Amino acid sequence: MARSNLRHGLNKGHPTTPIPKTVRPSQRKGIQSSRTKFVRSVVREVVGFSPYERRVMELLRNSKDKKARKLTKKRLGTLLRSKRKLEELGNIIQESRRAH
């Protein structure tokens, strides 16, 4: 809201031009670059899945969703991370079904 030269009200105060805020590195944290995405995809292709991920995928195929959620929560620490991992592995299962 632009300030007026008034003493009272919503727009009170000396009129100034706002200085745009600079983006700090801490605010950019977690944003995935195209290079990082590519590197992770190559690593996943070469290395494959960890043993617990294979077990979770098997549980998802056998429609044991609750057991899979419990296992991932135990391994990853929080329910949010667990949900993300289940979503990721579920998408991988669907893609493999489409491919075959």
UniProtKB/TrEMBL annotation:
Superkingdom to which the source organism belongs: Eukaryota
Keyword Lipoprotein in annotation: no
Biased composition (Basic residues): 1-11
Matches recorded under Gene3D superfamilies: 60S ribosomal protein L36 (1.10.10.1760)
Region named Disordered: 1-35
GO annotation, biological process: translation
GO molecular function terms listed in the Swiss-Prot or TrEMBL record: structural constituent of ribosome
PANTHER family the UniProt entry points to: 60S RIBOSOMAL PROTEIN L36 (PTHR10114)
Protein name as annotated: 60S ribosomal protein L36
Organism in which the protein naturally occurs: Polyporus arcularius HHB13444
Classification of source organism: Eukaryota, Fungi, Dikarya, Basidiomycota, Agaricomycotina
